[in-house]
Input
Amino acid sequence: MPELPVNSPPTSCPLCGTQEPVFFHQDRQREYWQCPGCQLVFVPPRNFLSSEEELACYQLHQNSPDDTGYRTFLGRLATPLIRRLTPGDRGLDFGSGPGPTLSVMLTEGGFPTSIYDPFFAPDDRVWNRSYDFVTATEVVEHLHHPRRELERLWSVLAPGGWLGIMTKRVRDATAFATWHYKNDPTHVIFFAETTFVWLADQWSAELEICGNDVVLLRKPG
Output
């Protein structure tokens, strides 16, 4: 086990606010802490990239609706979500990236989908509407302020609507040590299954675990 970092520990979890997070892992680039409450693993803000550095990483992405492999990948969330929707339901894809694709797939399937991305589609008018579903694929692991951002997504979801999240989940410290997912410098928070159970409890939401990296949460009503 690596030595404890010389920096002072974070004071609380950025998602649930539980005090005194526990040291979890350290590599050559960063340190990682775990919340003793919701089990979120997170990087302290001192290890965050600047906005300019973060944008430079995202601009390297080559995703496109013309990429059949990427469509198959996104289908891991789109397929179970569509099964739960009613034709004509309208949605929002949060964190759509430089080559929006999930929104295209859902719109093609009869579910008109708007997009929002803080770097590539920063249209704040989307927050003035409500949606039957909201998606976030490979997005939540980038959030610097997860509680605030997730609450915003939940607030625009209509009663009975679905929030679909795709992100790889933390298992344990041993697996984390060799986990490629942590090596992306823009990934700063890592959800465990317990984290999503906590989130569902906070929102009184129905939680469905769909495979290793997809969860669906249904808003009451």
Observations:
- The chain is about 25% helix and 20% strand.
